[in-house]
Design brief:
The protein is of the alpha+beta class and 129 residues long. The chain has one domain: Zincin-like. The protein is 43% helix and 12% strand. The strands form two sheets. It has a three-stranded mixed beta sheet with strand order 1-3-2, with helices on both faces. A two-stranded antiparallel sheet has the order 4-5. α3 packs across α4. The structure holds zinc ion (2 copies). The site of one zinc ion has 4 residues, from α3 and α4.
Length: 129
């Protein structure tokens, strides 16, 4: 798959459209490639994206181009969940991950699943159409 930007990925495009329909201000959140995300993915293969570099940017590892759309969409929604949940300086990584998925459930109406050997976020694409 040739992608100029991460949101050309069919799974990411579908999830982004869905998220913005549910919560219009998420249109401010952009998607970009990030070398740090590539490094994270090289170190931990289930890591494809993060929301730490900039408030309104979801950063992606280029390797997402080979990921199935159901997984890419699930990751995308999870990262929007981090943006929706905000962050508490004192919270643990575990708490932040739980809060992100809870925000996806409460504000985007999707219960994220974790599937496959790497337990990567997964969503039924039919729910996003
Ligand atoms: Zn980044
Ligand atoms: Zn996360």
């Amino acid at each position: 798959m040739d992608l100029l930007t991460p949101d050309q990925h069919p799974g990411i495009a579908l999830a982004a459209d869905y998220a913005v329909r549910r919560v219009p201000w998420l249109a401010a959140v952009k998607h970009r490639w990030c070398g740090m995300a590539d490094e994270d993915h090289a170190a931990v293969s289930r890591h494809y994206a993060h929301h730490v570099c900039l408030t309104d940017v979801i950063c992606w590892a280029f390797a997402v181009k080979d990921l199935e759309p159901e997984h890419a969409a699930g990751i995308c929604l999870h990262e929007y969940g981090h943006r929706l949940a905000g962050g508490d300086p004192g919270e643990s990584d575990f708490e932040a991950e739980m809060k992100a998925d809870r925000a996806v459930m409460e504000q985007l109406g999707i219960e994220l699943q974790y599937r496959g050997l790497r337990e990567i976020q997964w969503v039924d694409l039919a729910l996003l159409r």
